[in-house]
């Protein structure tokens, strides 16, 4: 038996997730597995929050409808030609791939940051599900400006939902994928139904009526920033920056037979990040005409964004169920990714227990509504922090021969801290974060420049340090 076969057998005994070896040929999956997962994950809990938040940012019809078409196309192209392309070549998780480049000590910092940020995102989705579960209990819904839990009922519901989601995620990729395939058709149907019912409630009888829901845009709600066409394009492109240009989905596409599986992300983008965002915005547009919402606006406050009541108002019990499932289908793979990040830090721990740890952190985060209510800003921040690390993988993969640097240098040189990586990331992050703060530039606008600079600096510093060490 070869060493590879021995390691493969050990991985099977440990849970079969192949965290530290390439996924074997026998375990690769067809495009259908990814189609269900991406359709489910991206027509999910975040969509119930993001659609309404676009309205609070005062977008116009053109900015939203055309901007989302372009931004989501750029996201699909990033997954197909960067993430999936590299994933099928190496068949490694993001975390093990980075360890080979960065070294064990440096990648520990990344894994911790990545895992915690993913837990916060999953926590926001637990919050979304809780707004639906709380309806029969007459639970007070969190407001757009709320940061802390608002009562014992809220806390109990969040904890129960978090426990269930964590157990599903802890059973590995197959279970996560199957759960998405089971739930996603019902969720997609619910979004479509919500959109149709909301159009009827808004009295839309023609395309011009539909267009006029947003019209030329409006002033943003209190505490929100104004979104233009380019805000919509760039934000929708980089809403999943950590996953595509940041290479987190190497951990998913390492199971793919072909790079063309990357096209399945279009199901998530155009069903979820297009149809579902617009449908959720329509639900909120209906609510904004209610006496309760008008009262909030008259008092200079932003009306709350609570997905459960919005969906319940449109399609009743089916809407409540859909919001619960939508939160699950986003939180499940997100907790799974977070568990893999923690697994890289403590490799001797089982996949089950590190995923339970990730789920516990996500549940605690879910108790605090701020992560969900400020989702536009949080998603921009976590993509900005993590995406440049993906540039290191991309630039090394495509340019290491041309620029004469050694691939997987930390592994080859047996070093635990690759200075080229930390210098490249720190300079690009520090420079563009300063620009964002100092000149009040929307953070998503500087994500691409930061990503490109990090990749270029990595090549420059790698050439310098490798030449220096060889001498």
Automatic annotation (TrEMBL):
Keywords: Membrane, Transmembrane, Transmembrane helix. Gene3D superfamilies: Hydantoin permease. The chain crosses the membrane at residues 64-88, 109-132, 152-170, 182-207, 227-246, 267-287, 310-331, 352-372, 378-399, 420-436, 442-461. GO terms for cellular component: plasma membrane. It comes from the Bacteria. One of its GO terms (molecular function) is cytosine transmembrane transporter activity. This is Purine-cytosine permease. It comes from Subsaximicrobium wynnwilliamsii.
């Amino acid at each position: 038996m070869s060493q590879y076969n021995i390691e493969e057998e050990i991985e099977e005994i440990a849970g079969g997730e192949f965290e530290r070896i390439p996924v074997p040929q026998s375990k690769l999956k067809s495009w259908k597995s990814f189609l269900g997962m991406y359709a489910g994950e991206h027509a999910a809990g975040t969509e119930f929050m993001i659609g309404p938040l676009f309205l609070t940012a005062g977008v116009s019809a053109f900015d939203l409808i055309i901007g989302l078409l372009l931004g989501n196309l750029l996201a699909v192209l990033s997954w197909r030609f960067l993430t999936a392309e590299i994933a099928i070549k190496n068949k490694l998780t993001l975390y093990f791939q980075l360890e080979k480049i960065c070294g064990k000590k440096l990648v520990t910092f990344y894994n911790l940051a990545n895992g915690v940020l993913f837990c916060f995102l999953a926590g926001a989705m637990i919050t979304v599900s809780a707004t639906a579960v709380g309806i029969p209990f007459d639970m007070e819904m969190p407001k757009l400006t709320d940061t802390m839990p608002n009562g014992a009922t809220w806390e109990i519901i969040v904890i129960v939902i978090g426990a269930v989601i964590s157990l599903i995620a802890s059973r590995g990729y197959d279970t996560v994928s199957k759960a998405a395939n089971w739930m996603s058709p019902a969720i997609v149907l619910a979004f479509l139904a919500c959109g149709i019912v909301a159009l009827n409630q808004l009295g839309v009888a023609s395309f011009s009526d539909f267009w006029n829901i947003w019209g030329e845009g409006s002033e943003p709600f209190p505490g929100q920033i104004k979104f233009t066409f380019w805000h919509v394009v760039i934000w929708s492109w980089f809403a999943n920056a950590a996953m595509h240009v940041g290479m987190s989905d190497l951990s998913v596409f390492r199971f793919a037979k072909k790079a063309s599986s990357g096209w399945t992300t279009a199901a998530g983008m155009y069903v979820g990040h297009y149809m579902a965002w617009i449908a959720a915005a329509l639900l909120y547009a209906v609510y904004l005409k209610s006496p309760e919402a008008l009262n909030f606006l008259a008092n200079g406050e932003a009306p709350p964004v609570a997905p459960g009541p919005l969906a319940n108002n449109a399609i009743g019990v089916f809407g409540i169920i859909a919001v619960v499932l939508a939160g699950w289908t986003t939180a499940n793979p997100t907790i799974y990714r977070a568990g893999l990040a923690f697994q890289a830090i403590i490799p001797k721990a089982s996949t089950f227990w590190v995923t339970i740890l990730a789920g516990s952190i996500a549940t605690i985060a879910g108790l605090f509504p701020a992560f969900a209510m400020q989702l536009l800003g949080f998603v921009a921040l976590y993509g900005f922090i993590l995406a440049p690390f993906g540039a290191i993988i991309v630039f090394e993969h495509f340019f290491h021969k041309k620029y004469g640097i050694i691939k997987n240098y930390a592994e080859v040189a047996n070093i635990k801290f690759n200075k080229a990586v930390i210098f490249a990331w720190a300079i690009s992050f520090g420079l563009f974060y300063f620009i964002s703060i100092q000149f009040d530039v929307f953070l998503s606008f500087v994500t691409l420049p930061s990503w490109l600079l990090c990749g270029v600096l990595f090549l420059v510093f790698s050439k310098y340090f490798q030449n220096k060490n060889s001498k």
